[in-house]
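Troubleshooting log. The previous structure file for this entry was overwritten by mistake, so regenerating from the original sequence record. Sequence copied from the archived sheet and checked twice against the printout by T.R.
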Amino acid sequence: MNRRDFAFKGIVASGVSVMGSSLVTEPVKGLERLPFKPEGYNYWTWRGHKIHYVVQGEGFPIVLIHGFGASAFHWRYNIPELAKRYKVYALDLLGFGWSEKAIIEYDAMVWRDQVVDFLKEIVKEPAVIVGNSLGGFTALVAAVGLPEQVAGVALLNSAGQFGNPNAETSKSEGSILQKFVLKPLKEIFQRVVLGFLFWQAKKPARIESVLKSVYINTSNVDDYLVESITRPAADPNAGEVYYRLMTRFMLNQSKYTLDNALSQLKCPLLLLWGDLDPWVGPAKANRIKEFYPRTTLVNLQAGHCPHDEVPELVNRALMDWLSSMTPEASLQTV
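Regenerated output below.
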């Protein structure tokens, strides 16, 4: 994904797409929807920060991780259905959703550590991790960080990039002018620009528009989805978190690569890929499958967030894979 495009997409970079339709509030026919609770569901204290999560069902555990700008509520059509056979957790990453908007230096490893500790302290047994977009890459590095407790990983249009062997690995110290004049001016400029972008991005109409740019079928771009993004964006610290995400994390993603994580992965991998995603096309899924042989690829006619655009197809494919992957997961489908 082009970094500048990502910045302009704003806080809803995990949303989905287009073909103008009117806003709807009725749930998808035939599918149960997670009730929207303004106060959230459950909370866990991690490193002194308040972390929100949802848990439903009994059986083999599945942990769902949302994408950039989203929350556990983005799994609204997956949690109730999967919970009929499994114990389903969906957590909000630090800085997103109903979790605390902590003023820290954000890094992919912060969310990896959060998920690893969530598995240790809350789940407490082997589980499958499922992630969309940013949540996909987080799921991948968490599986590498705690291999003994991760039975499998499922990625839906995952973030992350393959390393560039020709990229420069060293950075010069820089001149006094660069350090004490140009760098501070650059930071001031970034704050002004990103502050304006955040102010624009958190408007409901803007959020709806961005979501409609990445869902191919926009019928699920409704009031529920829009409010699940606007409410966290109203937090007093949300603007500062956005600035730190865009300057410290989004513009320095090359530090952590897909090939590095995949080379250390030790469990089965499922790719549920929206082939019509305008940001992360099927070429990445094919490259992941080629790099990591223990991969099952399911192509879907959907955009960036197939779990919310075609939830019935994602639920079915995920459960089929789970039933064939581990004895523990298979028992839950009998």
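The longest helix spans residues 176-201. Archived copy saved in two places this time.
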